């Protein structure tokens, strides 16, 4: 019996790893795991992760095949060579952008930020993404997103029926582990952890402003992401506060240490399609403070302390509550481990396989 070929857009293997890329990697690994355990499925489908020839990666799979093809790079590869090499077979796009000429495809669009927060992006960036989302939502066989909130937003901004959009929740790539009760001696002073880019919707400015209200307690703020302190200063995000430390990009090992030893993780974002970092913090037993906006209440449930992202004093109040209450910290840690059970890449991969079955010929 001939196998049904399914192609996955592997351009994400050439990109810096952020939340979107982590989700793509997690879903592909989960698909590979399911196919490895289900002989019936693996006899019907051949999953091919197709990527540019210059892609460098260390991953290996049991059932998912990796195929390097083409001469172009970036968007040019994705728009011109990818649809050629995937022929008429179903193509799965996991990271927002899809080839415009392809009809036989499914696309995951993670959020509607280019519509909801256009000022956060360059004119060319938001124009391209708006065009791509608009065309893809009408030409492709199906649209997938990562939360019920994002589903409603995409239906609104793209003027499409919400019934055309499926929700597949992502998950944390980090396994749940017990919190380190004895703090690392390198972190003798308590600190709040923030993981954020320079994007204004992430509200780094609000976190910094909150620390103006916390100068009476002995606590640091560690900000991971962006590039460095000079860049944050150049765009007016920070002032010189002695208890605010900008760490730039860090390794996963360093991030693990920071999550495990933090007083709490704070994420007062204005807009998220999902919000992966809070789940990552929960996986390491780190109490979480998030904004009461967008998808975050849906994702975090009762496993987070909520704040108003427009009011730095309210963010500070939430931090102060956790600083003063070991009992509240333990409650959020416990609830966090429970909340994580709602999100699983294997469950997401199973949902994706169900959609693949719907949109491929019956063997």
CATH fold title of the largest domain? Rossmann fold
Total strands: 13
Low-confidence stretches: 181-185, 228-235
Give the C-level CATH assignment of the largest domain: Alpha Beta
What is the approximate shape? globular
State the strand order across the main sheet.
3-2-1-4-5-6-7
**Largest sheet entry:** 7 strands, parallel
Beta-strand residue fraction: 15-25%
Q: What number of structural domains do the residues give?
A: 2
Q: Average pLDDT, to the nearest integer?
A: 90
Compute the CA-based radius of gyration: 21 Å
GO molecular function, one term: glycosyltransferase activity
InterPro entries: Glyco_trans_1
Organism: Pontibacter arcticus
Protein name: Glycosyltransferase family 1 protein
Quick tags:
363 residues, alpha/beta, Rossmann fold, 2 domains, seven-stranded parallel sheet, Glyco_trans_1, glycosyltransferase activity, Glycosyltransferase family 1 protein, transferase
Describe the fold and architecture.
The chain is of the alpha/beta class and 363 residues long. The chain folds into two domains: 4-171 and 344-358, 3-Layer(aba) Sandwich (Rossmann fold), CATH 3.40.50; 185-340, Glycogen Phosphorylase B (Rossmann fold), CATH 3.40.50.2000. Helix content is 41%, strand content 17%. The chain has 14 helices and 13 strands. The protein has helices spanning 19-37, 39-44, 74-85, 113-116, 123-139, 148-158, 204-211, 229-234, 252-261, 276-283, 296-300, 312-324, 326-340, 345-358; strands spanning 4-9, 45-52, 65-69, 90-93, 105-108, 142-145, 165-167, 191-195, 220-224, 244-248, 264-267, 288-291, 305-307. It has a seven-stranded parallel beta sheet. Helix 7 (204-211) links the parallel strand 8 and strand 9 (220-224). Helix 1 crosses helix 14. It is globular.
